[in-house]
Amino acid sequence: MESLRDLGLSSYEDRAYRGLLALGTGTAADVAAESDVPKGRIYDALGGLESRGLVRVQSDREPKRYAPVEPAVAVDRLVGAKRRELERRIETYESGKDDLIDQLADAETTDDRFWTAAVGADDSLDLLFERIDAASESLVVVATEVSSQFEVDREGPVLLDRLLSAIRRGVDVSVLLSPAMFDEALTAIDEDRAVLAMAQGAFALRVTDDVYGNFYLIDDEEVCLEVADPLAPDRLFGMLDLRDRGFATRVSDGFAEAWESAEIVEDV
Questions:
Q1: How many degrees, rounded to 5, is the angle at CA 190 between CA 266 and CA 166?
Q2: What per-residue string of b and e applies to 175-197 under the rule 16 or more CB within 10 Å gives b?
Q3: Which long-range contacts (CB under 8 A, 24 or more apart) does 177-182 make?
Q4: 165, 194 in Cβ contact below 8 A?
Q5: Do 183 and 94 have their domain in common?
């Protein structure tokens, strides 16, 4: 921050305040001469400084005399005013964001086929979490194995927290795991988190041997697929996200069949 203008002062106000600092006290004419602010603008500049509490005015004599408040006080007051202004803006943005989201959602179409991909474990996780956060109605998680690149103790709780956040948004979450993945999940996730998840009415967990691979079905219209490295199947190559209702329907139908025959997990 190089200038008081960064905190909202005009160029003339900035120059007038600096001129007063050099003078100590002075009349409007004195300040105009010291600061090179035109005489026709000096009263506006001093009035602006006064309204911000940056100058003190001796008005019981003519002409009025002005004195600057200390620089530390002036900057604190300007920063405080700027903070309040930004807080008001944030409140305005927050209050209007739902309407904007609704407007954008009304214009959104999911009829077109679209896909995107991420390569590598970190980017794949970022893409997955982004799509989980975008779910609005339902979310299906199917996992039969874990990549050697993932630290289950670290990523497992993070994934569960994302699922719980989705539930709080009103999303129905169904998780289908292989027995091996279920055992790994139990060792990675602390008991309190697990009990909290199981207590959610919109969360259901089942275990089966009848599925293969890892995928995530979002709102019955989008599928995230984990893609294994063909030269090292225990390592993740990337994540493929497909928005295709036809494909999503096939995946949903296959999941429903496996779900019906899976073992229900009611507590951990």
A1: 65
A2: bbbbeebbebbeebbeeebbeeb
A3: 177/142, 177/143, 177/144, 177/205, 177/206, 177/207, 177/208, 178/143, 178/144, 178/145, 178/207, 178/208, 178/209, 178/211, 179/207, 179/209, 180/144, 180/145, 181/143, 181/144, 181/145, 181/146, 182/207, 182/265
A4: no
A5: no
pLDDT tens readout for residues 1-49: 678 888 999 999 999 999 999 999 999 999 999 999 999 999 999 999 9
Q: Residue 99 carries which DSSP code? A: H
Task: Compute the distance between CA of residue 101 and CA of residue 107 in angstroms, rounded to an integer.
Answer: 10
**Which among 82, 108, 134 is the end of a domain?**
108
Torsion of CA 30, 31, 35, 37, to 10 degrees: -100
Residue 90's domain comprises 1-108
Cα(125)–Cα(116) distance, integer angstroms: 14
Closest by CA to 36, choosing from 48, 54, 18, is: 18
What pLDDT digit, counting tens, does each position of 54-92 carry?
999 987 778 889 999 999 999 999 999 999 999 999 999
pTM for this predicted structure:
0.60
Task: Tell which of 108, 142, 168 closes a domain.
Answer: 108
Residue among 180, 103, 104, 95 nearest 143 (CA): 180
Q: How many domains does the chain have?
A: 2
